[in-house]
Automatic annotation (TrEMBL):
The chain crosses the membrane at residues 91-113, 119-141, 156-178, 184-206, 240-257, 263-281. The keyword Magnesium does not apply. The keyword Membrane applies. InterPro entries: Perm_prefix_1 (IPR047928). This is Uncharacterized protein. It comes from the Bacteria. Keywords: Membrane, Transmembrane, Transmembrane helix.
C-alpha cells in the first residue's frame, strides 16, 4: 500500500522540478494518506476502497500542482545557471580530513624510509586513516552539489560509522597477519567487521532515497525507473554482492599470494559496474 500511495503522489507531481521542499511535501502527503488508509482498514474497509476514499478525501490538487510546476521552471533555470559553492562547515571538514591524512602519509613515508618495512609504515598510517576516511565520507555525502542535494546528516553519519567499522576490521586483520597468526586467524578477525558493515551498507543502499535534482529528461527517467522498489532492490543487491566479494577477494589474494596481484580485483569490479548498468538500461528501454 505504501508503494501504491507513493506512485500515486509521484504521478500527481510529475513534471514538477524536484526540490528539497517538494520532496518533503510529497513525503507529508504520503504519510497522511497512509494514515488515512490504515485508519479506514482498521474500521473495516477493504484496502482498495480505503485507498480510493483517501484519494477523494485529499481533494483536487490541480491548482497546487500547476503553481508548483510554474515555480519549478524558474527554479530549474536558476539552479542550472547558479554555481554551487561549498559552505564554510564543509570547507573546514575537508581541510581537517586532508590535514589528518597528510600527516599520516608523511609519518608512514618517514617510517618506511627508516625501516624499509611496508606493514610497519602502514601501522603508523592507520590511525590517521581511521580518522580522515569517515570525515571525507560524511562531508562528501552531506555536501550539496549542482546535481544532488546533500544527504541527511544522520544517514551520512551511519555511512561513516559503517566505513569506520570496516576499516577497523581491516586494521585488526592486518595486525593479525603481521603477527604471523596465519591466514585463517586473519580472516576470522576480519569476518565480524565485514558482516556488520555489509549489513549496514546493504540496508542503507536498499532504503536510499533519490537526492538527484531533476535538471534533464534522462535524469527523470533514470530516477522514475529506479523508484520501483523491486528494481532498486535487485540493482542494489547485485552491486552490493559484487563489491563485498571484491573486498573479500582483495584481502584473500593479498594475504595468500601477495598484494601486487590483489588490486586486479577492483579493476574487474569497476569494469562490471557499467555492464550491470547497461543490462538494467536495456530493460528500462524495453
Amino acid at each position: 500500500m505504501k508503494n501504491k500511495i507513493k506512485r500515486h503522489v509521484d504521478g500527481l507531481f510529475s513534471g514538477v522540478y524536484e526540490t528539497k521542499q517538494l520532496r518533503e511535501l510529497k513525503e507529508e502527503i504520503c504519510s497522511n494518506l497512509l494514515d488515512k488508509v490504515n485508519d479506514l482498514i482498521t474500521k473495516g474497509s477493504n484496502p482498495d476502497s480505503a485507498f480510493q476514499y483517501a484519494i477523494l478525501d485529499l481533494g483536487d490538487m490541480t491548482e497546487l500542482v500547476d503553481s508548483l510546476r510554474e515555480a519549478s521552471e524558474t527554479r530549474l533555470m536558476k539552479d542550472q545557471s547558479t554555481p554551487t559553492f561549498i559552505d564554510k562547515n564543509h570547507i573546514i571538514g575537508y581541510l581537517v580530513a586532508s590535514f589528518t591524512l597528510l600527516i599520516g602519509l608523511l609519518s608512514g613515508a618517514y617510517v618506511y624510509l627508516q625501516v624499509r618495512h611496508l606493514f610497519v609504515a602502514l601501522e603508523y598510517l592507520a590511525p590517521f586513516l581511521l580518522v580522515s576516511a569517515p570525515l571525507f565520507i560524511y562531508f562528501g555525502l552531506t555536501q550539496e552539489t549542482k546535481h544532488d542535494y546533500g544527504m541527511n546528516t544522520k544517514r551520512a553519519l551511519i555511512y561513516s560509522m559503517a566505513s569506520e567499522v570496516f576499516l577497523l576490521g581491516a586494521s585488526a586483520s592486518a595486525i593479525e597477519y603481521i603477527g604471523r597468526h596465519g591466514l585463517a586467524m586473519t580472516l576470522l578477525t576480519f569476518g565480524p567487521f565485514v558482516i556488520v558493515s555489509a549489513i549496514i551498507f546493504i540496508y542503507l543502499g536498499l532504503t536510499e532515497k533519490s537526492r538527484r535534482k531533476m535538471d534533464s529528461q534522462w535524469q527523470r527517467e533514470w530516477v522514475n525507473y529506479y523508484n520501483d522498489p523491486h528494481t532498486a532492490m535487485v540493482r542494489g543487491s547485485i552491486s552490493g554482492a559484487l563489491w563485498l566479494f571484491s573486498i573479500a577477494a582483495f584481502f584473500f589474494i593479498g594475504f595468500a599470494w601477495g598484494w601486487k596481484y590483489s588490486w586486479i580485483v577492483f579493476v574487474i569490479a569497476v569494469g562490471c559496474e557499467p555492464l550491470i548498468e547497461a543490462y538494467f538500461a536495456s530493460k528500462r528501454k524495453h
